[in-house]
Amino acid sequence: MKSAADVWEKVKNLMEGSMTAVSIETWFGDVEAVALEDTRLVLCVPTDFKRNIIRTRFQSGVEDALKELFSFDVDVTLLLPEERDAYTHQSAAPSPAGEDADRYTFERFVVGSTNRFAFTAAQKVAEEPGGAYNPLFIYGQSGLGKTHLLHAIANRVRHNHPGCRIMYVQSEDFVNELIGNLRRGIDMQGFRDKYRQVDLFLMDDVQFIAGKDSSEEELFHTFNTLYEQKKQIVFTSDRPPHEMLRLEQRLKTRFEQGLPADIQPPDYETRVALLKNKALERGISLPDPVLSYVAENITSNVRQIEGVVNKIMAFQELMGAQVDIETTIRAVRDILKAKENFLPSADTIIQEVARFYELDAAAITGQSQNKEISTARNVAMYIIREMTQLSLAEIGQQFGGRHHSTVLNSINRVEKMMKQQPELMEIIRDITNAVNSAY
After folding, report:
1. 3-class SS of residue 417
2. What does each C-alpha distance from 237 to 94, 142, 150, 213, 261 come to in angstroms?
3. Run means of pLDDT, 10 residues per run, the chain, 439 residues
4. Where does CATH 3.40.50.300 sit in the chain?
5. Whether 241 contacts 247, CB under 8 Å
6. What is the dihedral of CA 211, 213, 219, 221, to 10 degrees?
7. Dist CA 301 CA 319 (whole Å)
8. Residues 79, 45 contacting (CB under 8 angstroms)
């Protein structure tokens, strides 16, 4: 889950078992997720009356759904719009959910041949914000350390320039906040001032802006305002600007005018160094054979390596097991098995397609022939075919019992459209990444 908004949507879905859809829409339809902290979800409620009703009738249900989602207690804080403004101002600096922001420093970043250029560029930006490397555009696959570098820049700037105004935002939160303001008819000047009156602007996962016209428009003017004032801008993305096919050319040009810096998956030596570093942080020592085994088998990203160290540590603490090859194999067996056998459900794919197109999942699986809904339905069928082992007939059952020939025609239609519209390939890539991130 990448943002508070994602968590809030999943919570509402979980509550459908105890509340009617009408009740959920009535009381939570205009409630917005503001932030997800360590053990707290912050929501914004439009009126004091509605906040009181939610507190007395529904807050315990929301917290029960959060516990079901996370397996530990998560409190809920309800803010009014005017309280949200104050909260957002206080929380403008980076504050990663569930972890101490101070942890994300350059000193804690493990440098190797595949990330050295991005690391050095980030250090340079932190020492001379608004200088030659503006904007800095860091890109690479998920879990390679982009967000770590983003927060390391903020921490270094905060240390060297205590009065510096820092704004960190995930692009999805930027989009959701903009949409919420537009829907409620709120004066946009406050939104614009919030993002344009800063000295350091950091946006994570900027690829989610692509194809969202209003958000691109706001980001374009925010970029221009900050750049003209020589304020430092840093973006992260899962791809370079030229691969964002749905992004406006004027934004693409601005992303490319500074310094693009890529991060590749860590090589063997870097994976070993990462393992040693993560183990040291947790107060354990890993023998060389264990380091070699894990580094050879866990190759994709930093998060998986961290997960392996956590699992080994849990085996040692809970079972009194010594850290050796046998213990390590037992500890990482599930991780390796999940990596090899991951197959998402059709429901998950349909939900992510619906989320991307801003439609109800029921509409996609229903009988509507609306052009936008039909396109989303075809895309969902195509991705299910690509990511699962379901037959055409089984896929048809997911969409109201459609005949296998109808499913095949839909898939063929998408394949033809992808050749004619490269943007569709990017859309399918985005949805596929979202499906993978849901697990």
Report:
1. helix
2. 17, 9, 11, 18, 10
3. 76 85 88 79 88 88 84 80 66 45 79 91 93 92 87 90 86 87 79 89 92 91 94 94 88 92 87 82 78 77 74 69 72 60 80 88 90 93 90 91 92 90 86 74
4. 101-262
5. yes
6. 140
7. 27
8. yes
Query: 268-341: what fold?
Result: Helicase, Ruva Protein; domain 3 (1.10.8)
Model pTM score = 0.62
Q: Which two tokens stand for residue 418?
A: 């992808």
Q: Which residues pair with 200 in a beta bridge?
A: 166, 232
b or e along 158-187 (b: 16 or more beta carbons within 10 Å of the residue's beta carbon)? beeeeebebbbbbbbbbbbbbbbbeeeeee
Do the beta carbons of residue 208 and residue 171 sit within 8 Å?
yes
| 207/232 Cα distance (integer angstroms) | 19
| Fold entry, domain 101-262 | Rossmann fold (3.40.50)
Question: In 3D, which of 354, 392, 402, 397 has the Cα closest to residue 376?
Answer: 354
CA atoms within 13 A on the CB side of 390: 26
Find the helix packing angle between 302-319 and 288-297, rounded to 10°.
140
Which residues are 119's β-sheet partners?
none
| Contact in structure between 115 and 264 (CB atoms under 8 Å) | yes
- Domain 4-90 indexed as CATH 3.30.300.180: yes
Q: Where, residue-wise, is CATH 1.10.1750.10 in the chain?
A: 346-437
Rounded to whole angstroms, how far apart are CA atoms 431 and 305?
25
Phi, psi of 344 (to 5 degrees): -70, 160
Residue 356 C-alpha from the chain's centroid: 13
Structure tokens at 8: 């809030």
Residue 158: which of 105, 211, 116 has the closest Cα? 105
Question: Containing H/E element for 136?
Answer: strand 136-139
Give the pLDDT score at 95: 44
Residue pointed to by tokens 């894990």: 294
How much is the pLDDT for 183? 79
The CATH number of 346-437, from 3.40.50.1370, 1.10.1750.10, 2.30.110.10, 1.20.120.140, is 1.10.1750.10
CB-CB contact of 81 with 46 (8 Å): yes
CA distances from 225 to 193, 232, 427 (A): 10, 11, 29
Query: Which residues of the chain does CATH 3.30.300.180 include?
Result: 4-90
Task: Quote the pLDDT of residue 85.
Answer: 67
Q: Where are the beta strands (DSSP E) in 171-310?
A: 200-204, 232-237, 259-262
The residues of the chain that CATH labels 1.10.8.60 are 268-341
Tokens of 13: 């879905």
